[in-house]
Amino acid sequence: MSYYKIGDLEQYFKHYKKSVREPRKFWGKIAEENFVWYQAWDKVFDFDMEKHDIKWFTDGKLNIVKNCIDRHLSKRGEKAALIFEPNDINEQAQVISYNELYVRVAKMANVLKSQGIEKGDRVCIYLPMIPELAIAMLACARIGAIHSVIFAGFSAEAIKTRVEDCGAKMVITSDGGFRGAKTIQLKNIVDDAIKDLSSVEKVLVVKRTNEAVQMKEGRDLWLAPLYEVAEESNVAQIMDSEDPLFILYTSGSTGKPKGMVHTTAGYMIQTAYTFNNVFDYKDDDIFWCTADLGWITGHSYILYGALLNGATTVMFEGVPSYPNPSRFWDIIDKHKVTQFYTAPTAIRSLMTEDYSYITGHDLSSLRILGSVGEPINEEAWHWFNDFVGKKRCPIVDTWWQTETGSILISPLANVTPTKPTYATLPMPGIQTVLMDELHNEITGNQVMGSLCIKFPWPSMARTIWNDHERYVQTYFSDFPGCYFTGDGALRDEVGYYRITGRTDDVVIVSGHNIGTAPIEDAINQHPAVAESAVVGYNHDIKGNGLYGFITLKVEGTTRDRENVKKEINQLITSHYGPIGKLDKIQFVEGLPKTRSGKILRRLLRSIATNRLDTFGDTSTMINPEVVQGIIDERQ
Ligand code: WT7
């Protein structure tokens, strides 16, 4: 009996049961039958739940890139691995076969080695969505270096925090990047970010925009001349199952981002398995995920999950609105995309455009649609279903997180009956539970609670880089013995899950996970600002927008308020990145606080979302007099 492919709903339930009753057998068999290993593992898993030390496939030896590329060469060498669609419609798309990808990754791996990068070194990658980004990630994994991709929309300060935290020895960037009508000067931003960091020995620069850049003698190198002369083959490094594969930073409820550490074997097995089943993968498919490789969605499904299955995966450099809002439909038509995986925020923005942008494109190649990043509202779900899928493509609403590594709750295309706004059922191996405030498991259906997972899974993050204590605190302390997701959920009468949203100080804006703390840190840098609190509110396009309540210092109250607002958003852009800009700013007399001095965010959230009925208990407030003023002047 093989467990890799789930054929129908009955089989799903069978596999699910097996995965709970005999997890060793279940995952062991999948690992054995579908991947290549240098050496088999000793135990399928080994957990020390006192220390939260989680190991899968102990002492197994492998290389994930050998599984992504080398093993496909004999059968699918000429098959397209990557299709690159540039930002500019006049630039030709690139089709990179598995054979060519092998050579390009091998050459890049040899360049990295020639520049002193060794197994275990950290390499930060700050590149636009060009093939070199995928190639650099794979080259790192091939030689055992730990990649940490930083989304190319992040500011210099955000880069600095990340490079410093992981102690990167190298940064890979480009002169610039194209995004819609704009070019972004990435190399300049990196120069600014790392000027005081001693760990960075080399900066490798890819040429993309022909922007003029400064090259620092002894530190900065153009990639091209090194790549030209690099050997075309490379022996993949032998890695242990639990060797770190990458670090990816995500926001937390305190200012500092968390460097989530993913390891090799478990991540490989579960991203491959979920890619195959959630998207009902077939050999001739053309898979397109519109995320950026700088996020976990890109890591797991544009890159690793797709290549592990020998699939053809599309990488798009640009934005949905450029040169006009039909770009996504153009790309689907042009490359005959079969699976289209995108975010509710993109759907909501495209559905406001004229209908003529979508008609006139042949979307008949599509078989399956996917949604990720935030709850998909009913209206967007139906528009996606009616206008994109023409009511013949199942929509998989996939719930997961940077921390989970792979999709944990989702319909399986052509297996699980879908229901609008429901992520439906947990994947085999995922023991989801709902918990009440007293930390007891809520059994039965038609219930609501905090979404937790009560048994480890192969692709879960193993730790926070340099801060295991924070890992334990953040994920395992609220509900002892369980991983707490930070999300609330309800379970309907048949056991389907619907995610209701974050229960902590993280706001999902346009599908991006934004901690309010680092935004507040940036606002508080403004000389006129005394204090600030940022909360989320419902936004038609972005899902959530950011609403800042700000008190000014006495000397600040005489300044031009519109100007201060502008300056605050500039500060956020430079300290965090433009995705953290506030949509609404309200200057207030005072922020509502408890006797112990904690800002009552719940109350501000109720005001921001216009739900004055959900105030809850205000008896612990020390300054109830400020509330009416905030309500009267709300935006
Ligand atoms: C948070 C994780 C993993 C993909 C990208 C985001 C929210 C994610 C869904 C969904 C409702 C969702 C959750 C989660 N989220 N997918 N299908 N339905 N909410 O990764 O940045 O780590 O954010 O995104 O709130 O906790 P992330």
How would you sum up this structure, described in words?
- It is a single chain.
- The chain has 635 residues and is an alpha/beta fold.
- It folds into two domains: 481 residues, Rossmann fold (3-Layer(aba) Sandwich), CATH 3.40.50; 124 residues, GMP Synthetase, Chain A, domain 3 (2-Layer Sandwich).
- Helix content is 30%, strand content 23%.
- It contains 19 helices and 31 strands.
- A seven-stranded mixed sheet has the order 5-4-17-16-18-19-20, sandwiched between helices. Strands 7-6-8-11-12 form a five-stranded parallel sheet, sandwiched between helices.
- It is globular, with a radius of gyration of 24 Å.
- The termini are far apart.
- The model has no long low-confidence stretch (mean pLDDT 94).
- Bound molecules: 5'-O-[(S)-butoxy(hydroxy)phosphoryl]adenosine.
- Pfam families: ACAS_N (PF16177), AMP-binding (PF00501), AMP-binding_C (PF13193).
- Its EC number is 6.2.1.1.
- It is an enzyme of class 6 (ligase).
- One of its GO terms (biological process) is acetyl-CoA biosynthetic process from acetate.
Q: How many angstroms does the end-to-end distance come to?
A: 60 Å
Radius of gyration equals 24 Å
What gross morphology would you assign?
A: globular
Strand order of the largest sheet: 5-4-17-16-18-19-20
**Architecture per CATH nomenclature, i.e. the level-2 architecture of the largest domain:** 3-Layer(aba) Sandwich
Give the averaged pLDDT, no decimals: 94
Helix content: 25-40%
User: In terms of structural class, how would the helical and strand content be classed?
Assistant: alpha/beta
Query: For the report, how would you describe the main beta sheet?
Result: 7 strands, mixed
How many helices in DSSP terms? Answer: 19
Overall number of strands: 31
Oligomer: single chain
Reported by name, the CATH topology of the largest domain is Rossmann fold
CATH superfamily of the largest domain: ANL, N-terminal domain
State the domain count: 2
Give the names of the bound compounds. Answer: 5'-O-[(S)-butoxy(hydroxy)phosphoryl]adenosine
The portion of residues forming beta strands comes to: 15-25%
Low-pLDDT residue intervals, each spanning 5 or more residues: none
CATH class of the largest domain: Alpha Beta
